[in-house]
Design a protein that fits this description.
Strand content: under 5%
Distance between the termini: 27 Å
Structural class: mainly alpha
CATH superfamily: MFS general substrate transporter like domains
CATH class: Mainly Alpha
Shape: globular
Amino acid sequence: MREGLGTVFGSPWLWITIGVAGISNITYVGPMDVALPFLIKDHLHGQVGVLGLFYTCMSVGALLTAFWLGRYSRIRKRGLKLYGVWMLIGIMVVLIGLPISIPGVLAAAVVIGGANTALGLIWVNTLQEQVPRELQGRISSVDFLGSSLLAPVGYVIGGWATGFLGPVLIFIVGGILQTGLIGLGLLHPNIRALD
């Protein structure tokens, strides 16, 4: 465990990305996992079928992106692409909170599904290529724990804030905070240089 943590904290691209993921999960799960049903019902006046269609659209975006990225044997400029698609997710979260129609929200869902898939594929590929084989299990454990550790805080804040402020504001504020936080991570030269 000590060796895994030492490797993470000795590699800025690792600890910055894991830290940004951990904190940004607070701003992502509140809108997407807590406020979304309320947004669809109360502001878009949609039924449960619209919520199901939203998740289907995310899956369609994920499949299309997986097939598209599967054509490449190597992805270049991974730091920029990783953080770029990550910021795109935050922008789509903001967009969902704006006064757009159900088809616009469903289009944003396709983009979020695709961007989440690109994010995951680029990240896992980077870990497999950049982390020594004998440390990959430990680094993946630190990554998963650090990335998801604060998600329950997002559920608590998202639940409280959705009831208090309403789902629209949760999407707009959550997306802005997520995009800004990821943008701060992108400022580090080790992230931008990650190839």
